[in-house]
Amino acid sequence: MNKNVFFISHLDMKSGWGTLSNSYINEFNKKDIIIFCNEKNSAYNFIQYDILSKPLDYFKNPFLVLLDQIKIKKILNKYSKFKMFSHFTIEPYALLLPFIVKFFSLNTFYAIGTYTLELNKNLRSKFLFWLAKKKFDKILFLSTFTKKIIEKKINFDNAKIKMIINPVIKPTKEKVIKKFKRKTIICVGEIKPRKGYHILIKVLAQINNFHKKKFNLLLIGKSENKSYQQKLDLLIKKNNLDKFVKFQRNTSTKKLKYLYKKSHIFTMLSKKYDNHFEGFGIVYLEALNYGLPIIISKESGASDLFKIDNKLNICNPNKISFIANKIVEITENSQISSFKNNFKILNKHYNFNRLKLNKFYSNFN
């Protein structure tokens, strides 16, 4: 019998890490899964051991790797009769692999984005990551964009299999509800520079001040970068947008779904800064699922969606006037996007990537 051992932070569906980890875990039979995590989620009926440190703490203090691997070994010894496979869906946890590799027949690293590069750059983690990547058998990249950026700086030649598989969410047919009275642009994701919120505020200024429109901008996500938040607040004030920009920090899944459906268009103008970039952006898929037209930054992995439907809007995030014009054009033409068309795009994307994922996991069961 086999056991697939996942190293994750948590299974909170409000975060990208949680959503991605959940989607991979669901590809396996529950009884064949062991989860090592930082925080348990009682909503899931998996074997869960909440003994890991927070992922980013390993950057600050690699000594935590030595402490955590001792606890992990004690637990893995209980499953020694099984054939085990490791899955590092959260990049920093791969630093544990050199100390526990003897337990696993196959090791898979999920190259999601920013933190793959940070592991190789941070002096505290670089040596451990070098040891770990020598043991990777399979690498999963989230997108063509991700693979291109990461492989410019990191050599994964030891891995036998490397595949690009976009994240998937299962398409659901949603009911249409009445939109907000005022045209509303929605963007979802943690408030940080690589998400391009400062660019989106400039786009709103162009729409409201140059086009003489009155659009709202709804920004949903936690804000832990105080200096960046202050920059956004000053930008909003400078452009007289106080009445038109609204931040929502903590939003339930139910409320988020409602806000998606009430809004008129989704865009996230992701921008690459040094090692920081958007590996894909599951929120683009969520927006499609709720029937919204979307504008995709070409500096994000979601640009792979263009292969599924070449009518999707892929824009250079620096082209502020172009994006402003495009948003006005789309929101004034109700025929540009529909639930029916979005469902077709999502369904094709889902089926295409599920087939690739099944192939990737073919020897784990």
Helicity range: 25-40%
At the third CATH level, what is the topology name of the largest domain?
Rossmann fold
Give the amount of beta strand, in percent.
Answer: 15-25%
Shape: globular
Q: H/E element string?
A: EHEEHHEHEHHEHEEHEHEHEHEEHH
Name the structural class.
alpha/beta
Classified in CATH, the superfamily of the largest domain is Glycogen Phosphorylase B
Please give the largest β-sheet: 7 strands, parallel
In the sheet with the most strands, the strands line up as 3-2-1-4-5-6-7
- Domains, number: 2
* CATH C-level name of the largest domain: Alpha Beta
Going by CATH, the architecture of the largest domain would be 3-Layer(aba) Sandwich
Mean pLDDT: 93
Descriptive keywords:
single chain; 365 residues; alpha/beta; Rossmann fold; 2 domains; seven-stranded parallel β-sheet; six-stranded parallel β-sheet; 13 helices; 13 strands; 38% helix; globular
Descriptive account of the structure:
The protein is built from 13 helices and 13 strands. It has 365 residues and is α/β, with parallel strands linked by helices. It is globular and about 70 Å long. The model has no long low-confidence stretch (mean pLDDT 93). The protein folds into two domains: 163 residues, Rossmann fold (3-Layer(aba) Sandwich), CATH 3.40.50.2000; 162 residues, Rossmann fold (3-Layer(aba) Sandwich), CATH 3.40.50. The termini are close together.
